[in-house]
Amino acid sequence: MVPRVIYGRGSFNQTSEIIEEKRNKEYPFIFLADKVFEGKELEKRIPLKREDKVIFIDTTDEPKTKGIDTIRDSLKEEYGTVSGVIGIGGGSVLDSAKAVAIMMNSEGSSSQYQGWDLVKNPAVYHVGIPTISGTGAEVSRTCILTGPERKLGINSDFTPFDQVILDPDLVKGVEKNQAFFTGMDCYIHCIESLTGTYLNAFSKSYGEKALELCQKVYVHKSVWDEESDEDLMMASWHGGMSIAYSQVGIAHAVSYGLSYLLGIHHGVGNCIVFDRLEEYYPEGVKEFKYMVEKNQIEIPQGICKGLTDEQFNAMINVSYGMVPLWENALGKDWQKIMTKEKLRALYEKM
Ligand code: NAD
Ligand code: ZN
Question: Pfam families attached here (predicted)?
Answer without folding.
Answer: ADH_Fe_C, Fe-ADH
